[in-house]
Amino acid sequence: MIGLLCFVLAVLASPFKSKLRLEAENAALRHQVIVLRRKLRGRVRLTNHDRWFFVQLYRWFPSILTVITIVQLETLVRWHRAGFRCYWRRESRRRGGRPQIEADLRALIRQINMENLLWGAPRIHGELIKLGFSVAQSTVARYMVKRRGPPSQGWKTFLRNHAPDIAAMDLFVVPTIGFELLYGFVIVRIDRRDLVWINVTANPTAEWIARQITEAFPWDGAPGYMIRDRDRIYGAVVTRRLRAMGIRDKPIAPASPWQNGFAERLIGSIRRECLDHAIICGEAHLRRVLKSYADYYNRFRTHRSLKKDAPVSRSVQHTGVIRSRAILGGLHHHYGRI
């Protein structure tokens, strides 16, 4: 900058054009010396002031290219073109019009749009008005997520809307201390993951399963659909009982246990959290253990799929002394305030 000031003073003091060109070349040479004196090691480091100085001299006196040595000629021309673009970009920027909305409001528009795939710009605009935002509907349409094809709900939404009307049932085997086999039967509702029915038998038959379904659901509280596997134990008696109760039978595909994943997951929890830690003496013993676990499962055990709530919703306790109660002989504990 000192060199540029000296050059300006020389220009004002000199009345001849040839002297102006000479002073410009001298100013360029002096500034190069100043830049080289700042060099410590490696390549020469130029500041934005240095670049601006050389570009201005080049604009006024293109002949100084012959005396520039610390940078290449192409570099100086490139600086000049970059400055030209920045200048006209600044001059062409929008000075009026509608101001841009805040980033938080843009994120809220996209969130509402993604969470409600059936909503258009007018509906989202109405919600924003009720939330206290003053924004145009055209602005809402501009910041909505662009999607191809007609709007449609996802499988998660579809299953969640039908979950209260779906139940699943399955059988599992439990060995006893005498190496006999007992059969447990469970029915679970998909909506709250609640264990509707659990029972034990040594000789499962279609008639026994049909009776369990009748005892599990009252006539006015039966689900609309029942998921089951294709075990031959579910004979014509079971299908007729389901039809008589207004329940649609939905067997899974052959060799596809993941299609009955809720019942399979429940049976896995029963094994890992209860049966794997006990030796069953007989049918009465197994029935007592499973009834105790079913009560713990429905009333106290939290589930990640239920946002850490139990199938029978537990209230949040804030006051009182915390006490624990042993369940299944201390295998699990329930904690509450009294």
Give me the secondary-structure topology.
Layout: H1 2-13, H2 17-38, H3 48-60, H4 73-91, H5 103-115, H6 121-130, H7 137-143, H8 155-162, E1 166-175, E2 181-189, E3 195-201, H9 206-216, E4 225-228, H10 236-244, E5 248-251, H11 261-273, H12 283-299, E6 322-327, E7 332-337
Parallel strand pairs: 1-4, 4-5
Antiparallel strand pairs: 1-2, 2-3, 6-7
Helix pairs in contact: 1-2, 3-4, 6-7, 9-10
CATH top level of the largest domain is Alpha Beta
- Helix % is 40-55%
Q: Give the count of helical stretches.
A: 12
Radius of gyration: 40 Å
Q: How many domains is the backbone divided into? A: 3
State the order of secondary-structure elements, H for helix, E for strand.
HHHHHHHHEEEHEHEHHEE
State the shape.
elongated
Structural class: alpha/beta
Query: Distance between termini?
Result: 79 Å
Describe this structure in words.
The protein has 3 domains: 2-91, no CATH class; 103-152, no CATH class; 162-337, Ribonuclease H-like superfamily/Ribonuclease H (Nucleotidyltransferase, domain 5), CATH 3.30.420. Helix content is 46%, strand content 14%. It contains 12 helices and 7 strands. It has helices at 2-13, 17-38, 48-60, 73-91, 103-115, 121-130, 137-143, 155-162, 206-216, 236-244, 261-273, 283-299; strands spanning 166-175, 181-189, 195-201, 225-228, 248-251, 322-327, 332-337. The strands form 2 sheets. A 5-stranded mixed β-sheet has the order 3-2-1-4-5, with helices on both faces. Strands 6-7 form a two-stranded antiparallel sheet. A hairpin with a 4-residue loop joins β6 and β7 (332-337). The protein is elongated, with a radius of gyration of 40 Å.
